[in-house]
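Bug #77: duplicate submission created two jobs. Keeping one. Sequence:
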Amino acid sequence: MTTELHDELLRIPLDATESAVARVTCREGARPERLLVLFPPHPSLGGDAENNVIRAVARAGIETGRLVLRLRYRRTEPDAAGDGHSLAFWDDLDARRDYDLIVADSLLTIDTIRQAFRSAGPIEIAAYSFGVYVALRVLSRLGPARLVGISPPLLEHDFPGALPATGTGGGVTFIGTTGDPFCPPDALRQLAGAAGGRWHYIEAADHFYRGEENRLALAVLDALEIG
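Kept job's structure:
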């Protein structure tokens, strides 16, 4: 019998003037120590917490008894996504290549949710595209965590520079496709080697996994279990 689904939108104060909405979902009886945090793609490139990849991984995590947190970055709520001030905010971050504020927001949100749900176990992270860059930056300041990075746009950001200085402990897996121009296979293998982690390819046409979402979600969960 399918258990009841709990789905909450929680507003997280980020500073005196800004907040973000986090979506937390689980089945009744889920174990809060199994917290899976999902980092979405770049908001200026059509990415958000309801992206097809993020939704697929969230569904798979929920059905395996995890507490799933879908992050929403600052100024990316649906009513603000097309706002000129929000677009200018993200354009400025991109121009400066400075995402420290987004990293800090993500850490604050994760800590708030862990306290609210009394989730004390190791964190699991699945991140997609630009979200992989943010997640790697976050990883260096978290406790024990496993991370699966899906199709990082390796030609856009300094991913080797985002790796934790103390190492990842080998708990990192990168997943890409054989036809992704933003994540060339050779570069992905090099990043996995620098991280002391693993890499895995899925036969898919491009960066977006359309029609391959379920297969990708299963690959993500397999990687998290291997850790």
